[in-house]
Amino acid sequence: MKSYGNNGKALIFAAVMVVSASFAFAQSGQLNVVKPAIADRDLVIQIAEVTENAVFYPVDIGGTRLEALAVKAPDGTIRTAFNTCQVCYSSGRGFYKQQGTVLVCQNCGNRFRMSQVEVRSGGCNPVPIFPANKTVTGTTITISKEFLNEAKRIFARWRRG
Fold this sequence. Notes:
The chain is an alpha+beta fold. The protein has 2 helices and 12 strands; from the N terminus they run H-E-E-E-E-E-E-E-E-E-E-E-E-H.
């Protein structure tokens, strides 16, 4: 077996770094990432994991599955909303998936820019989670179990598919 000495080690190290960087880029660029579900507790979102691609956070509150989303808007602010449409929620299919740089309601097909999340209330928009309903620190966003419990009614027929 031929030995390549330190140059061989450097080449292997460089190859590992390229593969690792490619994997990290692919992971950060994924659309429609759904985090592991939590049950009957506050939802804590790590700000560091929020990017321009929406991240979805399922929560089970007393047997009802809810889902929140967090996304970084073009202005750099972190926006949060429930993953259900303010008009289509009762259909059970009023949830969003990201396509490119927009969120698309899976019931009516309306499209929303990330800059609209948590800003627009009423109409066919994601249900906003306003600042009064969450606690933001330098590293986390916490949505209380009590507030999630209040939101259960809009998820009564919800079925993400």
